[in-house]
Design a protein that fits this description.
286 residues, Rossmann fold, eight-stranded mixed beta sheet, 18% strand, globular, hydrolase activity, hydrolase
């Protein structure tokens, strides 16, 4: 998909950064994961191949929206998504969410049902089994690992940050799209480069998605048609997926496990990106 550009959208406390790919309708909304950015959707956008415009928001506390203040939480992100739809003149659309973005998408559909026609949930949204750990902060560290710990790290240059991500077990292959995604996350001046992601945003959002009432209620009510695309492998490319027991999800909505994918590559590479694009473009995919 051609025509990538970035725009700013006014929101409570500042401007959201939104990435756009393509031209014309329909405009589809994509929501990234807990420490990601809108560039997580670049490969999906390419696979849409002219089937509308993909609008992907940098959630507050991440990417170009990193300076927007809290409080954070899924309801706040859902309201920001409405601001994006308003700015783009989109009354209602398909919403796709990956990882934490799936929880945001569910809350968006629950709180603003007139703005959502259907949902594409990608390895996120339905309740997760709690990870081991005594406190929520310990659980967060187990669940996200290096992705969370990097927020307190400093890197000498871009090459060092790329090597940090290359060492992550989920990134079995490397591509120009992944490199752009990684580079975009950096801010600061060498040799003190760091991730743009707000650690407080990550913390508040993790507590909300794991124990908050808004995502639990949104899943119980499920006010819009939805489909679930499940990664075959887990956050660290381990054999056990993030959703190890999908039967309860499949009893409620169509579910497909995408072979050859882990929690990251399901959105950053094929075959996952192609599956997501097909689900977004297919009005019968629910």
């Amino acid at each position: 998909m051609t025509g990538y550009r970035r725009i700013s959208v006014p929101a409570d406390g500042g401007d959201l950064t939104v990435g756009l790919w393509g031209d014309g309708g329909p405009v589809l909304l994509a929501v990234h994961g807990i420490t990601a950015s809108h560039l997580a959707w670049a490969v999906v956008a390419e696979r849409l191949a002219g089937a509308g415009t993909l609008a992907a928001v940098d959630l507050r506390g991440r990417g170009g929206s990193a300076q927007l203040p809290g409080p954070y939480g899924l309801a706040r992100h859902a309201a920001d998504c409405v601001a994006v739809l308003d700015a783009l003149g989109v009354p209602s659309t398909v919403v796709c969410g990956h990882s934490m973005g799936g929880f945001v998408a569910l809350v968006l559909a629950d709180r603003y049902p007139d703005r959502v026609t259907r949902l594409v949930l990608v390895d996120g949204g339905p309740p997760l089994p709690p990870p081991p750990g005594g406190t929520p902060e310990e659980q967060l560290d187990v669940a996200l690992g290096a992705a969370a710990r990097r927020l307190s790290m400093r890197f000498a240059d871009r090459a060092a940050y790329r090597e940090f991500w290359r060492a992550h077990p989920a990134f079995r292959t490397w591509s120009a799209a992944i490199e752009s995604y990684v580079d975009y996350d950096l801010t600061g001046v060498e040799p003190e480069l760091r991730s743009r992601v707000s650690a407080e945003a990550m913390r508040q959002d993790y507590l909300d998605l794991s124990a908050g009432e808004a995502p639990a209620r949104a899943w119980r009510r499920l006010r819009r048609p939805a489909v679930f695309l499940r990664a075959e492998r887990g956050m660290f490319d381990e054999p056990t997926p993030l959703y190890p027991e999908p039967e309860a999800i499949a009893a409620r909505i169509p579910l497909r496990t995408v072979p050859g994918t882990n929690h990251y590559t399901i959105v950053l590479d094929d075959p996952g990106a192609a599956e997501i694009a097909a689900a977004l473009a297919d009005p019968g995919a629910h």
